[in-house]
Amino acid sequence: MTPLLDVRHLSVSLPTSTGDFVPVIHDASLHVNPGEIVGVAGESGSGKSMTAQALLGLLPSGARIGGSATLAGRDLLALRGKQWNEVRGTDIAMVFQDATSALHPMLPIGKQLTEHMRLHLGLDKRSANRRAAELLDKVRIPEPERTLKSYPHQFSGGMRQRVAIAMALACEPRLLIADEPTTALDVTVQAGILELFDDLRRDMDLSVLFITHDLGVLAALTARTYVFYAGRVMETAPTTDVLMTPRHPYTSALLKARPHAGDAWSAAADGTTARLQTIPGIPATPASAGPGCPFAPRCAFRQDRCTDAPPPLLDIAPGHAAACVVQPDLGEVPA
Amino acid sequence: MSILDVRDLQVEFRSRSRGTVRAVDGVSLTVERGQVVGLVGESGCGKSSLARAVVGLEKHSAGQVLLDGEPVTPVGWRRRSDHDVRMQMVFQNPYGSLNPRRTIGSQLRDGLRTPASRTDPDGEVRRLLDLVGLDPATADRYPHQFSGGQRQRIVIARALAADPDVLVADEPVTALDASSQAQVVNLLVELVAELGLGMLFISHDLALVQEIADVTAVMYLGRVVEMGPTAEVWADPQHPYTRALVEALPRISAQPSLPVSLRGEVPDAARIPSGCRFRPRCSQAMDVCREDPPVVSRGAAWSACWLGDQIPVGAPADASEGDAR
Questions:
Q1: Do A261 and B234 touch (CB under 8 A)?
Q2: How far apart, in whole angstroms, are the C-alpha atoms of residue B97 and residue B58?
Q3: Shared-domain flag, residues A128 and A270
Q4: Contacts of residue A253 in chain B, CB cutoff 8 Å?
Q5: Is residue A195 assigned to a domain?
Q6: Is residue B157 part of a domain?
Q7: What distance lies between CA A55 and its chain's CA centroid?
Q8: In-domain check, residue B39
């Protein structure tokens, strides 16, 4: 299958006030197939959001970009200025963490939903309104017609996120990038939004690049996962493989530090209390990392050679690759 | 006697447009020394209002907060009494909790209360930093020189400066990354055990509470609907709301599945449903749920639900009349 989104060896560095460049993404390759939800996991500063911004041409001006990124054959990194308008919203749309700031507080929902439909699709007011109502229905908002006349503050966080998703879907994008879309929501509401993403994938064959720090959300929704650390892809595989048989010490450490009850990895899967396993030190950033593996200073399996050169992404099993030269035995999921 | 005893606490807010909103409506709970009591619930359920009222940042409209048997006075213009200072709070945002223009050593010295601190305040500051796992030599630094997790450690050290008996932690690790989250949570749990503190740990993250709390209380719309030893509440939740929260947690397993969503949202506290407050969202709601639910005990745990399978304790006398209204 030809991937819809194909990113190869992407590197990004940003200019600083002193004229230097700080690296934020190192040699990251990832792809999304049509109708696939792909997860990008990582802590803050791992470069996961920066990757999304690079794909939408939203990097700060002066950023240095290397590698390639194509969407259905179209070279995204070659786009300049107004050319992005043909891509943003129509080919690639984005859903942000904070739906409150993604919506204009003083315009009715209907106006915000129809504006770019009229611009991009050339619809007249009436048909744009009809389509807006259909979209709201699609994201399971009750009484779509009335909602069009309402303002964002009249809705709860979960409903606002549904409106933001409807807005992103308005021009039928080929790819949706969702950056922590459920992080600000309660678990009960989060479950509803995850269900919605899954339904949209099934019904509309939607492709999604889903960025999150929550490994449980990845497990529930995504087919494949990329684990980012300090601007690098540390591990990638089908999500179940990444989470059940991690092959990178960082992934394994993240799983064990996770408090999530009832998980395969939880130290207290039986409902008793226990201590969380911690990762020593603080997360590295691409700028602070040395020449070798950025996780090496915190890694329990570190060897001398780890600090020499950045580890290549090694294939371990079909579709499963990890950037670790040591390949330690990380154990099995506790039975 | 419990170190912290909250009795039938009510917190009300008045506004011109919405009238009086009762954010906390009759919550009772106790925290023992060396015990972690976890309080979970969705946003808007009143858990933060409860936390603020317990430490005295918000005046309560009815009920009592007893610290070591004596009532806590809400914060006012007067200097806090030595008694009230023995309860300290840790907030969600470590960036907003520290003064960016003062060294952390100077900020820690503010709160010192122990006899040892009179003779050697600098030594006491170093002891506190060491206690929370920071290098004592960093006392001369400013907050921006620390990461989020380290700042939260500083905030915890400052809370400990007052030699407290009780810590109230309101979402203390929500703003932190996964790896620092685990470190800070473990630190809090260790301190509770080592120093014999009582801790009220408030979080929207059920899994975290499940992992560290000795007792879990589940709050919905201003009331506690289920409470008991954490293991019991988790292994066999009795209240449909607790069950819904547990089922909504995404889990990692070999056979992944989508978490189960709960319909609707927490209603506005200004328009509280009659009877069981969870009734409009409950999949098992019955006619009888229009009446206030009875408290049903099961061992050391209890829940407030009509579905309770034992003889109701403290049920209203007219309960059998069903949906009279």
A1: yes
A2: 18
A3: no
A4: 179
A5: no
A6: yes
A7: 12
A8: yes
Per the domain annotation, does B320 fall within a domain?
no
Interchain contact, A257 vs B234, CB within 8 Å: no
Q: Is A300 on the interface with B (CB under 8 A)?
A: no
The interface predicted TM-score (ipTM) is: 0.85
Residues of A with Cβ-Cβ distance to B257 under 8 angstroms:
220
What kind and span of H or E run contains A203? helix A187-204
Residue A246 lies in a domain: yes
Q: Which domain holds residue B25?
A: 4-75+82-220
Residue A136 sits in the same domain as residue A237: no
d(CA B308, CA B302): 9
pTM of the model: 0.88
- Mark whether A15 and A53 lie in a shared domain: yes
Q: Which residue of A has its CA nearest to B184?
A: A278
- Contacts with A186 from chain B: Cβ below 8 Å: 42-43, 204
The token duo for B311 is 């003889």
What is the full per-residue pLDDT of chain A (335 aa) written as tens digits? 789 999 999 999 999 888 889 999 999 999 999 999 999 999 888 888 899 999 999 998 889 999 999 999 999 999 988 899 889 888 999 998 888 888 999 999 999 999 888 888 888 999 999 999 999 999 989 889 999 999 999 888 889 999 999 999 988 899 999 999 998 888 998 999 999 999 999 999 999 999 999 999 999 999 999 999 999 999 999 999 999 999 999 999 988 888 766 666 655 444 444 567 888 887 888 888 788 999 999 999 999 999 998 899 999 999 999 999 998 888 666 53
Same domain, A101 and A87: no
Residues A222 and A301 in one domain: yes
Place of tokens 């400066």: B161
For residue B260, the 8-state DSSP code is: P
Q: What is the CATH number of the domain that holds B16?
A: 3.40.50.300
Q: What is the pLDDT of residues A112-121, one digit of tens each?
A: 999 888 888 8
Is A214 an 8 Å CB contact of chain B?
Answer: yes
Judge residue B299's burial from the number of C-beta atoms within 10 Å of its C-beta, 0-12 exposed, 13-18 middle, 19 or more buried.
Answer: exposed
User: Could you tell me if B309 and B316 are in contact, meaning their C-beta atoms sit under 8 angstroms apart?
Assistant: no
pLDDT digits (tens, 9 = 90+) for B150-187: 999 999 999 999 999 999 999 999 888 877 888 899 99
What residues contact A68, with CB distance under 8 A and at least 6 apart? A6, A7, A8, A9, A10, A75, A77
Taking CA–CA distances from B252, the nearest residue in chain A reads A263
Partner-chain contact A239 B258, CB within 8 Å: no
Interface list for A 9-38 with B (CB within 8 A)? none
Q: Catalogue the E-assigned strands of A109-200.
A: 175-179
Task: Please check whether residue A111 lies inside any domain of the structure.
Answer: yes
A-B contacts (CB, under 8 Å): 166
Residue of B nearest to A279 (CA): B179
Do residues A16 and A71 both lie within one domain?
Answer: yes
- The count of domains in chain A is 2
CATH number of the domain at A66, please: 3.40.50.300
Query: Using alpha carbons only, how large is chain A's radius of gyration in Å?
Result: 21
